[in-house]
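Sample 3 of the quickstart, ligand KG4:
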Amino acid sequence: MLILGIESSCDETAAAVVRDGREILSSVIASQIDLHRPWGGVVPELASREHLEKIEPIVIEALEKAHLILKDIDAIAVTQGPGLIGSLLVGVCYAKALAWGLDIPLVGINHIEGHVYSVAFENSPVEYPALALIVSGGHTNIFYVPSEGQYKVVSRTRDDAAGEAFDKVAKMLGLGYPGGPVIEKLALEGDSSKVRFPRAKISDGRPDLSFSGLKTAVSRYVKENNIQPLANGDAPTREIKDLAASFQQAVVSALVDTFEKLADELQPKTLIVAGGVACNRALRQAAEVAANRLDIPVYFPSKHLSTDNAAMIAAAGYFHLKNGEHSDLAMTADITLRLQNVDVEQLKGKARYRL
Ligand code: KG4
Ligand code: ZN
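Result:
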């Protein structure tokens, strides 16, 4: 089955052609990073306008790179949510029109489930139950996946996503946008034991995460030590490198300690670490150490598949289409989509864990 994947939930316009959920024939991504950089973050209105410009050429390029024409495509998978509404609508409307015109099935995909499927390409097939840490600029969750397509949220952030914390701290230090890659680079030359940041405590004892206190702690440290943010072209100081390393260490250990603790409890057969922050080598190394101790494999997507892309959406789409699920033309973008379909009954009323 040849699936055309389309992704436009945030600031990447992406299209990909994937065969049988595991073989990438093409994957094209138009990043809007340069467009949003002067604003220090994604500007939703600019993002949707740019998607509108890029969607058609990106789809055409994906088909060309796969040496296919539209008529060869068997089905379309498109990101339905969560994300920015204007951005999502561009991909969803385009995909619906194309599916209708070609008279082929369409399936709306949860973006977070897409990230789970980003490990489908370059790794052995996932063995279930699995435990998946999805860390991006918009989301930080740990899912227990008892079997394919079943998700239970076992940990989530109470405030900022991990990637958001990287981006905000980078902004504070004058390091530019997006923050993750710059902080990772500076951290390589810094001493992570220089600043000890306190670990967030969750008052109800759930294995949840929190990064806004860490962000405040960094801001306080910057003020108390009179650290000046870098201006354009400044060489990073030792103080900033040490701070970057200490901050990164605090995020990585909070994520991996929680992940490992839940793995001890739930005994999964596979660990998955995906999402933009999964590009981070310190996070990968710490997850590998945990997996070795647990004696189970950990799967990561390659860099290209860690940040937003359409191949992962097509892979998730393959699973749903194979199960006979598809969306009709009434399907629309939904920014409130959550990924949980196991034990939802007992969690009724808790909106944050909604399906
Ligand atoms: O998955 P993604 O492309 O978009 C969302 O769905 O949010 O993730 C983008 C996030 C940004 O916050 C960025 O700073 C972070 O991933 N990121 C990193 C690294 N590369 C990207 N965070 C830490 N270390 C990195 N190397
Ligand atoms: Zn994402």
